[in-house]
From TrEMBL:
Domain VanZ-like: 11-110
Name of the protein this chain belongs to: VanZ-like domain-containing protein
Keyword Transmembrane helix: yes
Compositionally biased region (Basic residues): 119-128
Region (Disordered): 119-148
Source organism of the structure: Wenjunlia vitaminophila (Streptomyces vitaminophilus)
Domain of life of the source: Bacteria
Residues passing through the membrane, by range: 96-114
Keyword Transmembrane among UniProt keywords: yes
Listed InterPro entries: Teicoplanin_resist-assoc, VanZ-like
Length: 172
């Protein structure tokens, strides 16, 4: 599976880490840098999108980072194994490493800041200023039952000013 399908101009499969990176940087530094940048950016969106799938704002930073990088590396490994079926394409461990590093960098650059901003937004969104805070909650008051009625408790509703009602309506 790691051998190319009889194509003479293709290098053999690389399972030695950093061998391809060293070779392309020594051959042509500009093209090598472009190739490395491409490999870093190829799966970088997974570093942001995978944590969004869970949708948890209170996830552990280390746990989220570990899961994201592992899943990104697994996707990259699967793509590398799958592309060996294409003539002229061989397995390269450096591609898996660079893709995983790209996922990790994208995750570290975007996810922690976004989560903290969303957590702050969630806690401040429903906060009501003290001067506009509603009156205490209604308390049930026992009223004497009227003959023939089913009412046992009467509830006294608190008065809410127009400003408080408008503020609560805007917050939703």
């Amino acid at each position: 599976m790691l051998r190319p399908l009889s194509v003479p101009w293709v290098y053999s499969a690389n399972v030695r880490p950093l061998a391809t990176i060293d070779r392309i940087l020594l051959t042509d530094p500009v093209a090598g840098s472009r190739t490395i940048g491409t490999e870093l950016l190829l799966l970088a969106p997974l570093g942001v999108l995978l944590p969004l799938l869970a949708g948890r704002l209170d996830a552990s930073a280390l746990g989220s980072f570990t899961r994201t990088v592992f899943c990104g590396a697994a996707v990259s490994f699967g793509i590398e194994c799958w592309q060996t079926q294409v003539p002229g394409r061989v397995f390269d461990v450096d591609t898996v490493i660079l893709n995983a590093v790209g996922v990790a960098v994208a995750h570290l650059l975007v996810v922690p800041g976004t989560r903290s901003r969303l957590r702050r937004r969630r806690t401040t969104r429903h906060r009501v200023p003290r001067d506009l805070a509603p009156a205490p909650a209604a308390t049930p008051v026992a009223a004497p039952p009227r003959p023939g009625s089913q009412d046992v408790l009467a509830v006294r509703a608190p008065a809410i000013s127009y400003e408080v009602a408008a503020h609560l309506h805007r917050g939703m």
